[in-house]
Design a protein that fits this description.
The complex is a heterotrimer. Helix content of chain B is 20%, strand content 31%. By secondary structure, chain B is an alpha+beta fold. Chain B is elongated and about 80 Å long. Chain B starts with 9 loop residues before the first helix and ends with a strand. Classes of the chains: A mainly alpha, B alpha+beta, C mainly alpha. Chains A and C meet through helix 2, strand 1, helix 3, helix 4 and helix 5 of A and strand 1, helix 1, helix 2, helix 3 and helix 4 of C.
Chain lengths: 223, 184, 270
Amino acid sequence: MIQKVYDWLDERLDLSPIWRDIADHEVPEHVNPAHHFSAFVYCFGGLTFFTVVIQILSGMFLAMFYAPDIVNAFNSVKYLQTEVSFGYIVRGMHHWGASVVIVMLFLHTLRVFFTGAYKAPREMNWVVGVLLFAVILGLGFTGYLLPWDNKAYFATKVGLQIAEVVPVLGPYVKHFLAGGDIVGAETITRFFAIHVFFLPAILLLLLGVHFILIRRQGIAGPL
Amino acid sequence: MNEKPKQPQTSETFGETAKTKDEISRRQFLTYTLMGTGGFMASMLIIPPLRATLDSVLQKKQEEPMVAVADVSEITDEPKRFTFTLTIDDAWVKNQKTTFTAWVFKSENGDIMALSPICTHLGCTVDWNSNPKYPEEFFCPCHGGRYSKDGVNIPGTPPSSPLAVYAYEVKDGKLYLGKLISRS
Amino acid sequence: MAHERNKNDVKYVGDSRVKVRKEKLYPKPYSEYPGKTEPFFPNFLLKEWMAAVVFLGAFMVLVVSHPAPLEATPADPNDTSYIPLPDWYFLFLYQFLKYFPSGTAVWGAVIIPGFFALLFLLAPWLDRKPDRRPSKRPIATSLMLIVVAGIVFLTYEAVVQHKAQVEAMEASAAQHAQQAAPAPAPQDQGTTATFDPEAAYMQSCSACHGQDLAGTAAAPSLIALNLTVDEVVDIITNGRSGSQGVMPPGMFSGTEEQKKQLAEWVLSHQ
């Protein structure tokens, strides 16, 4: 049955080459931990992506329980954390995942740097990777405010204060992020929108480019 | 390679040796393991959030208190609309005052009936005696649903079950209403 | 193509509008190299997923055993005693900024971190030699090691300083609570001449201005102030709002005489 549906689609859309390219490409020995255990350092990129998937999944479920509003934000987070069974696990996945993403990303970056994998012809993928790093830090910064407790509030206040230091653009950046002169109602809705729509959209786009480039250029050879 | 023509080409492209019908190739074995591992990981990730989203369904309903709605003396044979307020906890919005409506009247045998105004068709609000074409009936303006005075749906109109009734009790000359009882 | 081609000939690929380029930098696929390669699906992916299962198991154990922190009450913008702390991965930037006095904050916040970020982004063009081994490109390697060590150090410092600040804050809060308690007030500050301005400073001021008066992220340095004793007493009493935030009034609650002594002590740090 599935085979028939696939054949029908493949006849028209020529799907096979797409997944065949991904499925059948040969993975070299030097990145395979089964051959050299030290090759586990090549896993960090995959684990970063895996954690990003956890973040997207847990984030989508978190959004079902979250009200981005100064009155309700904290209460909705607290409700999920304390009253919904398994709620603390959903929130915990997103909370700890945020830290794990940074750790994995850091390790992945160091691996790429120290193996010199960014050298020609892979310069562009390094640039995309650095942009991804920035986007993920942005996700961390905007997500930190959302629980709306004192920790979240004052850290954001400090962060925006720092943004204001930027010459010329600073006040505008701060105003764009905060939506006003104070960290308040409009700040939380903006941070929420940036955290769940703007940055994830950019993230997915860059991730797509990152993967396409890896596939096109192949992974860097052994040292 | 002397295989049945139906065999998909994949095993050939990888130079697998011929198999009898019951054997599976190494590639297939790996694929099944992969699917198992993937399924295990997916369920580990999806079960906690799914359980959390279904929590409100699985949680025991809190017992609704009986609320004084009207003096018994106010109740006649003619359905009359009464509103009453309940303080409910709606997830993180605690102590929220919510207003409910009931059509209350004395039926022929003297029992009090308190009907929910929610049409059992698609949830619009029914009104008593509001359509001149159908006097002495509950009428739903959305799709022309009709109910007789005791809340039973009139055959041939959209609703398929009678209006729900409130549990009630009379104490010290006052009518108390409780939870809704569905009659479908 | 075996035969010679004229340099000016244009050869077209399938779509006649797209010219064939002569050379591409795409590396050869690994199937052309010797060595134990294996197909991505299912062989290699299975190994990756084995690692992923172990990783996910450990992650879920962490999640289940350590609920994500959440404070007991929602944000209170008027809470003057809260010491802010960014998420741990921003701590190094936060700490770095502390080393820049108010006028030069732009260096600590933008210029220097921005310079490093730019170096980082442009690494492939700065480190161009084809050799990839870390030992063969000492500048890149050592620079990165220094930066990583710096980040670790700054993060550590930030944590240590934050801890000290919170402890000082809690100690002073406890002290305040003790003073507020009506019953035992025999050696309340100031009834006698035993008032010690340094102790009072440590109690009431050091949480924000730092134990060495050099200032923190929360408040400016008090060293070498260009103020008179009366002006300082006025700031202690009524607070002040300046470029570095607001000092609330009544942070030190003693007699006028004690405030004066405290002010003199602060101004003695030149």
